[in-house]
Amino acid sequence: MKLLKQIFDFYLNSSIHVALSCFALVQITFYFFHLQYNAAITFFVFFGTIVGYNFVKYDALVRVKKKPIGNPLKIIAFLSLISLFLVAYSFFQLKRITQIVSIVIFAITALYTLPFFPNKKNARNWAGVKIYIVAICWVGATLVLPYMDAEIPFTTHFFVKCFQRFVLVFVLILVFEIIDLANDDPHLKTVPQTIGVKRTKILGFSLLIPFWILGILTFTFHDLVINLIMVITLMLFILFANPGRSHYYTSFWVESVPIFWWLMIVFF
């Protein structure tokens, strides 16, 4: 049992689970825009998520806090290195415009982690902006990149989907911020810190309603039913979120929502 827990913790700590969530959203993008499966984009986003998230999570521990590197962290570093090579390989399979946009997303991720400006903290510690930066990066990686690599003209349908994807990721992050309320630096001015847990939950519920209603314009009845199940599931996660919850509540269950959504599309 202890070994299984160690394997499961490694699966979460190495960002493989969050990479699967991004993978699922990329597949959902292929589905909704009727795009042919693109292996280069799929691998680029999956392994890029592993590299990006591990860089964000462990950079401060190693570079700033100088904490000793244990065996689990060494394995994660090795996995990230392998993923970096696969990202580089996939990058050169992408269209030129997709490469440019991916570099922009990488620059935002780097800005989020590294203090580029003198006497300034990284963007991760800028008051009130963390949630928007993360949501924009997710929309860019899981929707904009696959769409642009398919070389399809921009349409109203595309912008509606971008808004919906932004709302989905924004609400997912709200749950994280509720769970992390007790540990987050007060200077971050996260949404729960600013308006309280109750109002944050109301905000999450309020955003998911237009998310689903907008689907009436672009989804089939089959997709609307699946989306409704996904929205209700996420609403339940919001309802039962509180600062006393285990980190598994968000790092596994909440981040499984995109995977659950994709699996429903595939099987139902």
From TrEMBL:
Keywords: Membrane, Transmembrane, Transmembrane helix. The chain crosses the membrane at residues 12-33, 39-56, 76-94, 100-117, 129-148, 163-182, 202-219, 225-241, 248-267. The keyword Transmembrane applies. This is Prenyltransferase. It comes from Flavobacterium flavipigmentatum. The lineage of its organism: Bacteria, Pseudomonadati, Bacteroidota, Flavobacteriia, Flavobacteriales.
